[in-house]
Amino acid sequence: MKTKIFGHRGSAGTHPENTMISFKEAARVGADGIELDIQMTKDGVIVVIHDETVKRTTNGKNKGWVKDYTLKQIKKMDVSYKFKDKYGFCEIPTLEEVFDWAKSNQLLINVEFKTGLVSYKDIEEKTLKMISDYGLENRIVISSFNHYSLVKCRRISSTIDLAILYMEGLYEPWDYAKRLKTNGIHPYHQTISKEIVEESKLNGIAVRPFTINDEKKMKQFIEFGCSAIITDYPKKALALTV
Questions:
Q1: N or C: more exposed end of the chain, with fewer CB within 10 A?
Q2: Known SUPFAM superfamilies for this protein (predicted)?
Q3: Adjacent-strand bridge partners of 33
Q4: Considering the entire predicted model, what is its pTM?
């Protein structure tokens, strides 16, 4: 099966990460899917931003935790990040805005729960309900470094696609994934080998390493037969799958 290409935070190598223009660029170049990160505002709205704090991606002009801002306050922040001169003001999208846009295409969407530092009340329940309301169950992969969140998602839904994220070497990751009743692994690319890819797939576990930006590495993981690769440069990666 052909290795799918997921745009990391959209097309984060060429556009402001986790913004609508970044997601639209990934779609424009033909990516199979996008990866995005979610947090929750003070008033309980799920928003798409990687860090638990707002400082890095809002050009250093704001500080503090996402959880301490209302949606109205969040929407005033400019997350054009290092691309400000090129694209101008970019706002933080809500997950609902992304899902509304997703109705116009067939992209797969990897939703990453950023629940490692902040315990957002009912974020798993709210997200799964939104996925169901939009009829996106067959296009979603949920991932997280917080595996408790994944276990909670599995208790809520027996069918949603789940994948464990991890940074360090993990012994027989396919076995761990099965024990948690998840469907895939999203390992840091330096932790895996061809054998891990092959053994995982033999055990019915999808393998989608992140974040692969070097073209040699992209080619290597495509040759390994990874289910997908996650990259900041989907256009570059797609050229290697032709």
A1: C
A2: PLC-like phosphodiesterases
A3: 6, 108
A4: 0.97
